[in-house]
Design goal:
Number of strands: 2
Shape: flat
Strand order of the largest sheet: 1-2
Radius of gyration: 15 Å
Order of helices and strands: HHHHEHE
Protein name: Reverse transcriptase domain-containing protein
Strand content: under 5%
Distance between the termini: 33 Å
Largest sheet: 2 strands, antiparallel
Helix content: 40-55%
Length: 119
């Protein structure tokens, strides 16, 4: 179990430092469970809260394109996201990820969306 958390931490740090991960990897991991992604999200928010960029807003999410979102009416999903304030480049990136489920979107708080989003 410790080695699993260690590898999770290492890959999470790689993504924080801007080291490119494989395009076939979702959330930093290939074929890993939701718990790994939750841990990475926790680690990312913890690092952000204590780091130099702590005054900037941080947005993080995990989307399971294979199971949950293959049955959701996409128009309704985009409407709900707009109602909750997701717009512009962020909404465009999410739409692109739904169309191309093998993409990796890396969003860093100190960079613009165009600088760090690989779609």
């Amino acid at each position: 179990m410790l080695s699993l958390w260690k590898s999770s931490l290492t890959l999470g740090e790689r993504s924080l430092k801007g080291v490119p991960l494989s395009r076939t990897v979702s959330g930093g991991f290939l074929k890993r469970c939701c718990m790994h992604n939750i841990f990475n999200t926790w680690h990312l928010t913890d690092r952000h809260r204590c780091g130099p960029a702590s005054s900037l807003p941080l947005f993080a999410c995990q989307i399971d394109f294979e199971k949950a979102f293959d049955r959701v009416p996409r128009d309704l999903l985009w409407l709900r996201l707009k109602e909750r304030g997701v717009q512009g480049g962020m909404l465009y990136a999410l739409k692109a990820c739904c169309l191309y489920a093998h993409c990796l979107a890396e969003l860093f708080p100190a960079c613009t969306l165009a600088d760090r989003t690989a779609v």
